[in-house]
Write a structure and sequence with these properties.
homodimer, 403 residues, alpha/beta, Rossmann fold, 6-stranded mixed beta sheet, 14 helices, 13 strands, threonine deaminase activity (chains A, B), lyase (chains A, B)
């Protein structure tokens, strides 16, 4: 029903359980695309439900059976008219997923594939949303889960993993060391890998965000889409979701994709702006936006190629812009986003300031995680003095506030 | 379309903007019930959608127009068969609401009422979910919001309020002082009150949780429902939701309601076990379960009367049982609950151990808040040693874990 194609050399492979990346091009250049024969996929607009979870896209997903208990997807899309002078702005908010981030869309597919291939154990290396997502979604299944985390992981994130009953391996080293040892161990023990970019099916899970948006907008997709980018898989997936729908004649165009990176973690933006052939530029990341704080993005080639195909580009925003965006987004829309999610909104504002948007555009902004996942970015901004519980003092304060 | 009836003296009042509690019976004994003439409400099962948000219950809500932008409700219900030997156990998980708690159901109605009555400002005193919920849902409206919080509020919760742009009044005193001064100021400045129990419409918003469960279960309601109780409004609302549906001939029975309180905050349980006439027993609360850590429950009379009518009772669980419940619930179901939410699950287990449940029972457990709202209850339980990133050492560790 589908094949795997190398993003660099274009070799086409039949899918096999142990096939993750192109053996010829390696893990960095050889990430794989899932390609479908669209003629064999029989879907029409009325097959889809505005309130459906991601299992409704099963016919366009590389799985034989959807195996996840929780409701993944069916996240809200909010419309604001004449927002910053733009005709229609849609906010797609994925913080209401089971573990409160976009990553649940990927983990759901990884778990389904693990079952399909008969694995009893699934693993990943991560410090963040991918880890909690895998731990949470696999909790009510009978899969064993191992999460490799670096020693400096915040205690709160470690706690979340334990709560879901995942086996946590605290590696006495940094993230890269945890990642490398996880791959070695996973291969040796024949575990299924949920490491981002390495596993081509994760992107397929994530593409459901774009498809869901299209369904919720009655298949009238926006002109331009803003999405934050770390390792490059989410942004690639947004393109792929629209691409599949376009090829299935469900939508009339593919939106321009604008990738937003933190200034302190702009490896993909740098690679993109250097032009073709895309050659990964790695950096030492430094940004408050944890989930997109990536120095060596594993899906950089795909991200650059897809964004280019869409007619889009990359923009960067600094940490101050991200912080401001968290507050403004929450105040204007009621969405409390984690820093990586708010980065997309900061990028939208940057595009406005650069006159990249037209009044008559329709725009969608993907907000990929719940602000409760990372409150340290906002709590420093709070300065407030206590007031005695005395009527006159309180009234005086309120009169000051109201002006 | 509806009237207000005092829970103690039974006097019936026509609703008025400034009417919160019965003037004869006072704030504690005189909380009001919203009563409908069910003959005038024309609804049938097919009017309701398993994926609808709470606005679908508008005909059975005391509002003229639903005015909230975010998707409140449409939270998942998960079914587990033969769970602890019980035929069917349903978990109703409200952590996916806009601000990640059950309280959004109440705030949505409070905001709609504030608009209906022409108020420009809405307020509450709170340190927790009610505050963030009001701040979050009112953010994209043009209502001004004032939140009175005691000085000792955790910085994380304070941050969340600021993010949504609410005006925060940090009262140099405890919660009771903040509550009392908020009421005085609110009355004086003619603001709308979202203080729990005092405002009878909050319970009406919360009752949608029971109605939604009924709709999702094809109107076959469970035999027994577990729900945690703090000030008594949520548990009363669960009864009221089923009661309304029963009187509208949509369901065939009202489930037994089992209220779960933390041992350190068992004011309602004590009042209930002392028997009729219910006389509030106040205590000094001490429990890790913030959201139900209430010493002077404001809806205690209603909670006792409704639970009695349902044929249910109250049980208490200690903090250790609540902590254990968080982990077990997460592991078994994939739901990461805040302590108050997990208390209901701990109560379910207590009921099992007391032989209160029969094999053929169907049971529902309300999980009222997302664990990300309060991680301190779990992080102390984490003890784990780092392992060097050496293949053999990691394998050795894994072999130990697998046994």
């Amino acid at each position: 029903m589908y094949k795997l194609k190398c993003i660099t050399c274009g070799t086409i492979y039949d899918p096999e359980p142990n096939m993750y990346t192109c053996p010829k091009c390696g893990e960095r250049y050889g990430t794989l695309e899932v390609i479908f024969n669209y003629d064999l996929i029989n879907v029409k607009k009325s097959d889809f439900d505005k309130h459906g979870d991601i299992s409704q896209f099963s016919k366009i997903l590389p799985i034989t059976e959807y195996k996840v208990k929780q409701v993944v997807g069916n996240t809200p899309t909010y419309e604001f008219k004449n927002y910053y002078g733009i005709k229609k702005v849609f906010f797609k908010y994925d913080g209401t997923n089971p573990t409160s981030s976009y990553k649940d869309r990927a983990s759901a597919i990884a778990i389904s594939k693990a079952y399909e291939y008969g694995y009893d154990t699934i693993y990943c290396a991560s410090t963040g949303n991918a880890a909690s997502s895998l731990a949470g979604l696999s909790a009510p299944t009978d899969l064993k889960t191992f999460i490799f985390v670096p020693k400096n992981i915040p205690i709160a994130k470690l706690a979340q993993l334990h709560v879901f009953g995942a086996n946590v391996i605290l590696v006495d080293g940094n993230y890269d060391q945890a990642f490398d040892i996880s791959t070695k161990v996973g291969k040796k023990l024949n575990w299924y890998s949920r490491n981002s970019a390495i596993n081509p099916y994760l992107l397929e899970g994530k593409k459901t965000g774009a498809m869901e948006l299209a369904v919720q907008l009655d298949f009238e997709v926006p002109d331009i889409v803003f999405v934050s980018a770390g390792d490059g898989t989410v942004i690639s997936s947004i393109y792929k979701g629209f691409y599949d729908f376009y090829n299935l004649n469900l939508i009339q165009k593919i939106p321009k994709i604008i990738g937003i990176q933190a200034k302190g973690a702009d490896a993909i933006a740098k690679t993109f702006s250097n032009g073709k052939p895309y050659t990964p530029v790695d950096i030492i990341p430094n940004t408050i936006a944890d989930s997109i704080s990536v120095g060596k993005p594993r899906d950089v080639i795909k991200a650059c190629k897809y964004v280019e195909k869409s007619g889009g580009t990359f923009l960067t925003v600094n940490d101050e812009e991200i912080k401001t965006a968290i507050f403004e987004l929450a105040k204007n829309t009621g969405i409390f986003a984690e820093p990586a999610g708010a980065a997309a909104y900061a990028g939208f504002k940057k595009a406005i300031s650069m006159d990249l948007l037209k009044k008559e555009d329709t725009v969608a902004i993907f907000i990929t995680g719940n602000g409760l996942k990372d409150i340290k970015a906002v709590q420093d901004n709070i300065k407030i003095n206590p007031i005695p519980p005395v009527f006159e003092k309180i009234i005086e304060y309120i009169n000051g506030v109201k002006k």
